[in-house]
Specification:
With about 250 residues, the protein is of the alpha/beta class. It contains eight helices and seven strands. Helix 5 links the parallel strand 5 and strand 6. The protein starts with a strand and ends in a 7-residue tail after the last strand.
Length: about 250
């Protein structure tokens, strides 16, 4: 049984898949998110777990969630910052159509959350003398755009910011033994991709765009790579953005 402790932000989709897989591998998992019922239900499925309700845009609540994890388990080895949003409902879209409100909401819901969670993780590990693994959720859309169906430019910008921030952090904190990477999935069957799942034209497009999965990937497909990057098996990997895209970038 592992004594590692993993903190995961989010309680659905890829975050939930990573939490379940980590639990199956014997790790303790602390889930942080705003959906209390969903988060507690996920935690209840895991053998050693904890949960904290948290508005991830509130730095005080983020700090409190990290404290709750440490109180529950006494340590923190890895953080998977998986929480994020699609800004389409807020007004994200092609830049000439994107509203200021849509831009701000999308940047906050992705880049700012990643900043606040990353800062809390790094502060903790520095205070205890170093060591730790942080993985931030990016997206293939940060560097492999698709204009027809996925022209959400605030989303792409927010995920690009996460890639840049993660790389800069990796360089800064490598001497402290803190690893920082990003993971960039293509289209995955999660609650956030409900619009695409319901659109037959997009489904046909994705079958061609992601030939290795013959369509949308499943959350577990990304979660396995995420847990590898957070594990000791990846102890020499930092400053990387690992693409899990079923062929998106080359199709």
């Amino acid at each position: 049984m592992s004594d590692r402790v993993l903190l995961v932000t989010g309680s659905s989709g890829i975050a939930a898949a990573a939490a379940r897989l980590a639990g199956e591998r014997g790790e303790s998992v602390f889930i942080v998110g705003r959906e209390e019922e969903q988060g507690r239900a996920l935690a209840a499925q895991l053998p050693r777990s904890g949960f904290a309700v948290c508005d991830l845009l509130d730095e005080t609540q983020v700090a409190a969630a990290f404290s709750a994890c440490l109180q529950r388990f006494g340590r923190l080895d890895a953080v998977f910052q998986a929480a994020g949003i699609s800004g389409r409902s807020f007004g994200d879209g092609p830049i000439h159509e994107c509203s200021s409100e849509g831009w701000d909401a999308t940047m906050d819901g992705n880049a700012k959350i990643a900043f606040l969670v990353s800062r809390a993780a790094v502060r903790h590990w520095l205070a205890k003398g170093g060591g730790g693994a942080l993985l931030n959720m990016a997206s293939v859309l940060a560097f492999a755009p698709q204009a027809q169906h996925f022209a959400t430019h605030a989303y792409a910008a927010s995920k690009g910011a996460i890639v840049a921030m993660s790389t800069a952090m990796a360089a800064c904190y490598a001497p402290n033994g803190i690893r920082v990477n990003a993971i960039a999935p293509a289209l995955v069957r999660t609650p956030m991709s409900a619009r695409s799942q319901a659109d037959n034209e997009i489904q046909e497009f994705i079958r061609r765009k992601q030939p290795l999965s013959n369509g949308m990937m499943e959350p577990d497909d990304v979660a396995r790579t995420a847990l590898f990057l957070l594990s000791d098996d990846a102890r020499h990997i930092t400053g990387q953005t690992i693409v899990v895209d079923a062929g998106w970038t080359i199709s």
